Amino acid sequence: MTAITGTPLLEVEHLTMRFGGLVAVNDVSFTAMKQQITAVIGPNGAGKTTMFNCLTGFYSPTVGRLALHRDEGIFLLERLEAFRISQQAAVARTFQNIRLFAHMSVLENLIVAQHNKLMKASGFSVAGLLGLPVYRKAEKEAVELARHWLDKVKLTKFADWEAGNLPYGAQRRLEIARAMCTEPVLLCLDEPAAGLNPRESGDLAELLIYIRDEEKIGVLLIEHDMSVVMRISDHVVVLDYGRKISDGTPAYVKSDPTVIRAYLGEEEHEELPPEIIRDLPEVAEREEGA
Ligand SMILES: Nc1ncnc2c1ncn2[C@@H]1O[C@H](COP(=O)(O)OP(=O)(O)OP(=O)(O)O)[C@@H](O)[C@H]1O
């Protein structure tokens, strides 16, 4: 493990999630820092999505403390219901499978994401029904925020399209925009590059860098695409069979023999991500000799 410096945003301590006899996440601890991209990687079934489900209230962890540090104080996520984790702790997430409102327009998807803020401004309908200035102001701000994110994900010209008619890569970007419209402090993305072509993966990487550097939001990223992970992450946590097996900078993790072994399995070299294959001693020697 190499030390990652920064200001803690999310402290995961001894997280364990059991399903009957199966321990999907086994005593995992790490700290994700503010304004950093922390990637969680590992072979299929390693426990990555289960960990996300614990963080976002879909599962109640068997054991563990999940402390989110905000200016307002510390939120213990394991004690909060899912809707409070998103509304009060300001944790947003996307899923492996796309979950947009397919029959709403692209812009409407981003306005609906701000429903809680708008409901509050409307005094839970009264001010909204009466068209009071406080509600009109909130509505205008919601549209401005939506337009800001449409621009950032390069979907402005598709604002009136039905979301379900967008190409796949654009739907993925819209999901991230929708999550950002909830104004999170922590953005959790479950395999955002899945199914993207290399150009779209490049755009995604740029977008995540923008979210970190300009919007100053912490990102927790589950991703199998190692070219994206190694390029943009500040910190990589590796899980295997539910346990944390490595934790550090991308450079440290990709040359960690434990990680190489986990991806290699027994004799399955082809499963190893190319970035890790390049660092294998036998490959490096071969390339030097060539
Ligand atoms: N609700 C559940 N009930 C029982 N077992 C579950 C449940 N959810 C996940 N598991 C099991 O927990 C283990 C970890 O699964 P998980 O989906 O978290 O892995 P993952 O690292 O996200 O995998 P992938 O990269 O394939 O998405 C797997 O063995 C899975 O079958």
UniProtKB/TrEMBL annotation:
GO terms for molecular function: ATP binding; ATP hydrolysis activity; L-isoleucine transmembrane transporter activity; L-phenylalanine transmembrane transporter activity; L-valine transmembrane transporter activity. Residues 10-266 form the ABC transporter domain. GO terms for cellular component: plasma membrane. The keyword Cell membrane does not apply. SUPFAM superfamilies: P-loop containing nucleoside triphosphate hydrolases. It comes from the Bacteria. Gene3D superfamilies: P-loop containing nucleotide triphosphate hydrolases. It holds the Pfam family ABC_tran. InterPro entries: AAA+_ATPase (IPR003593), ABC_AA/LPS_Transport (IPR051120), ABC_transporter-like_ATP-bd (IPR003439), BCA_ABC_TP_C (IPR032823), P-loop_NTPase (IPR027417). Keywords: Amino-acid transport, ATP-binding, Nucleotide-binding, Transport. One of its GO terms (biological process) is L-isoleucine import across plasma membrane. Belongs to the ABC transporter superfamily. PANTHER family: CONSERVED COMPONENT OF ABC TRANSPORTER FOR NATURAL AMINO ACIDS-RELATED, HIGH-AFFINITY BRANCHED-CHAIN AMINO ACID TRANSPORT ATP-BINDING PROTEIN LIVG. This is ABC transporter ATP-binding protein.
